[in-house]
Amino acid sequence: MDAYYEFTERPLILEACDVVLANCYSFWEDCDMDYSPLYIKDMFQRALRKGIGKNVIISETGWPSQGTNLEGAFPSYENYLKYFMNMQKWHRKTKLKSFHLSSFDESSKGVTEGDVETYWGLWEKDEQLKF
Fold first, then answer.
1. How far apart are CA 94 and CA 28, in angstroms?
2. Tell me, what DSSP letter sits at residue 115?
3. In sequence order, what are the residues at sequence separation of 6 or more whose Cβ sits closer than 8 angstroms to the Cβ of residue 35?
4. Distance of CA 87 to the CA centre of its chain
5. How buried is 128 (Cβ within 10 angstroms: 0-12 exposed, 13-18 middle, 19+ buried)?
6. pLDDT, tens digit, 9 for 90 and up, residues 70-94
């Protein structure tokens, strides 16, 4: 399991894999929410092309519901929900397999990657569903 681009830049990793588990985060690549659905599909397609017939699963993805923006990527409840719904629509249409980064917001995170790291969960830290 690694970032999608590691498979494109390091083909030897693929030789050792039966299944490709690619982390795909348009937020961490400064992507505006409006372009995020296309961007995430591009990340997946890059891993799929390099996988040469291997099963590719998005092993981590998501969007933070709050925190500091990263260039053109803005964390917000609205963007979090848009991202989640866009992924669900894509899954239904393509039968794609992927995993959302976190079930719960994790207040213990945020030390190394900034305040957004604590807000990726489907539930808030007090176990309240975000939507």
1. 24
2. G
3. 26
4. 9
5. exposed
6. 999 999 999 999 999 999 999 899 9
pLDDT tens, residue by residue, 13-30: 788 888 988 899 999 999
Q: Which residue segments constitute the domains of the chain, with CATH numbers given?
A: 2-123 (3.20.20.80)
CB proximity list for 73: less than 8 A, separation 6 or greater: 26, 27, 28, 29, 30, 31, 32, 33
Q: Which two tokens stand for residue 77?
A: 């409840």
Beta partners for residue 55, in sequence order: 19
Which string of DSSP letters, residue by residue, matches 52-110? TT-EEEEEEE---SSS--BTTB---HHHHHHHHHHHHHHHHHH---EEESEEE--TT--
Cα gap 88→1, rounded to integer Å = 22
The residue behind tokens 């985060």 is 25
- Extract the tokens encoding 111: 């030390």
Give the C-alpha distances (Å, rounded to integers) separating 2 from 19, 32, 34, 61, 131: 12, 23, 25, 12, 29
Q: Are residues 1 and 59 in contact, defined by beta-carbon separation less than 8 angstroms?
A: yes
